[in-house]
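Teaching soon. Got one?

===
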Amino acid sequence: MNLIASTHSINSGNLSQIPEIGIMLTDLRLIHPLKSINLLSVERVLSTLGWQAIPFAEDLGPRKITRAHLGNEFCERLLPSTSMLKEAVCWCQTNNLGITLVTPMLADHGIAQLTTLLASTPDGSEVVCNDFGVIRLVNERFEGLIPVAGRQMCKMIKDPRLPSADWANSAPPGTQSGLFTKLMQRLNVNSHETEVRPFAQTSDFQPNGLNLGAHLPFGYTLKGRICRLGSAHLAKTKKFTPGHSCSKECLSYFSKMERLGKQSTHELDAFLRGNTVFYRYDKEQEAVLAEAINKGWVNRIILSGDWNENRRAH
């Protein structure tokens, strides 16, 4: 097991403050190696999947994972098939895991596909929504499911190239606005997800009337419709355009991003996965998240590892 623990710790002595732990699985085939594990502790799951450099690994190691986040927040082409979702739901139920179906922004085709998936999702499960159309679909046609506001609905400045806190603090997270909370509650949304922004402050996680899930150890900074990896095999005139075929290359490969020339000492490591740019938390972000967790402000930690720099083709 090759896990690099954070230099900042969670107060594991106060177990009441440690939040629920969920695991994000974009590639639902990853449940196959996990089927051999009797106890889904953080340590056993991370070791089995080979996810490295997860902050707070030593603090969370023996604690049980109690929820699975199934799907992807950023690309409708990564919506799972109905058969894969049913298999994953069965595995979750066998292991007494809560179920969260994760969804991206969707066009008409994706909405039609999602409608079928929602019909296969058990009542009481969550649905992470990253557009208002999905929230409306859940509320109007699937009253047994619980909508959650995804990261794309929780706006803030998250550029990993920011040179100083002055830039970041000019636009604090919108989740701390009372209007955000009122809008979400009006839409029957009582929980939201977020990440740790560059130059974050502990007050970013201050209770706002909604339950909070924090992603670890990656934040996203932007997404689009263009997939660099999916364009790699195309002729030059067709590269980097939407609408091409997809072989889900992003499940196996990522692109590291580096800037030439002078860089800020605060610049975070960034990489491209599919149509989305991510950054890895540094010690500053880890410290802020640890403090928020120890204050009891974070209801859930969502561990990610399959759709990022830790997952490579074998």
User: Anything to note?
Assistant: Confidence is low (pLDDT under 50) at residues 1-5. Residues 19-303 form a domain with the TIM Barrel fold (CATH 3.20.20). The radius of gyration is 19 Å. The first strand starts at residue 20 and ends at 25.
